[in-house]
Amino acid sequence: MDLTSCTWMVRELGEAVSCTVLIDDDSLLVGGWDGTIKHWTEAGDLIWEAKTPNRISSMVTKDGSIYATSGLHIVCLQASTGAIQWNVALEGSADAVMATSTCVLAASSVYDIEHNDFIESAIWSISFDGDVLATHRMDERPWTLQPYNQGAIAGLGRPLNGYLILDANGDILEQNKDWESPTICATRGENPVFGLADGSVRSMDGALVGSMQSAISSVLKHPDGYLLADDQGNIEFVHNDVKWNASGNDVVASSLGFDIDEKGSCWVARWNGSQGEIIVHSIRDGQQLASLNGHRIHDMAFNGQRIAVGCENGQVFVWEKELFQRRMQQPSQQPKDPSRSAMFEKLRALRK
Predict the structure, then answer these.
(1) Which domains does the chain have, with CATH numbers?
(2) CA proximity to 88, closest of 135, 139, 50, 145
(3) pLDDT-derived band of residue 342, with 50, 70 and 90 as boundaries?
(4) What pLDDT is stored for residue 334 in this prediction?
């Protein structure tokens, strides 16, 4: 199926998209490479637009506020209006941000072009009013930073590797440094597993969950197993052993998706250097269900009801569960029918 036939809406950020967030009420937050943030309602109406200092790589909402990484800064915006409440400059690029019940946690890193490596990183605790409470400086870059229990967990690069567990105030509770390879990515939620640069996927106690031939670029947890991707364009769905796999161009983004025929789906974005592609696979057997060719994809977001995809050309595509399922159940039609394509173009325009 051609994904354009079931697009819920298409929106324009006005610059390359770098971050997408679908909120529980189905409203949409999108950040760009030049620092623009836009917020749309679930119906697609623009609520507000804000301008921040630089590229948005991470955003999180908490108690009426939005916390975003913006170049070297952490920025707090009022969720209802987009007004900037405060701005804190970190030492190096602001890579990730999250919020606990008591503070904002952020990760930063300094990249040395001469050494071609990250030379210093830090995890910052910042009050909801914008005051820096504590800074944990380290040689290892936190490649992941996400909620865990009441605090956070961070996957670390060289030289220690492993991960850190932090409490709600950002204080370090535990450090695992027994792994020989840097931690690159991790699943969210309870009992996370970690993707490593040596191609292994490990649980918190170090047990091997899966492995691929090269560095793991993403790992997603599904009730029936794990979706793995490596930096050579390979994907695998594993549960005890490999259930199915697929290969192709570089995987630049991936997400779990809607249930189809009582089984889940996964959305994989690929890039061949000149053209982007989204492929929707069945979690059950890897069957390709739908696809879309176009610009490079930079980010995906999924909240159970909708999936949003942000593109290099500034477009944001949104698919909605019920519409997607209805289109899947309809008899297939010729995807290159000019009148049909024109009709869908008019429908998408009406949603803008």
Answers:
(1) 1-14+252-352 (2.40.10.480)
(2) 135
(3) low
(4) 45
